[in-house]
Amino acid sequence: MENDSSSGQQQDQGGQDLKYATDLLSSVSAALIENGAETRLAEQMPARLAKAFGISDIQISVEPSYAVAKCGSAVSFAKINGFGVNFRFVTSVGRLCIHAETGKIKDLRALSHRISAIHKNKYSLWLLIPFTGFACGTFALLSGAHYLPALASAVAAAFGSGIKFLMIRGRFNVLPIFATSAFCSVSIAELMELLMQMSPVGDPSIVAAVLYLVPGVPLMNSVLDGIKGFYLMAVVRLTEALMLIFSAVLGIFIASFLFGGIL
Question: How far apart are CA 81 and CA 61, in angstroms?
Answer without folding.
Answer: 16
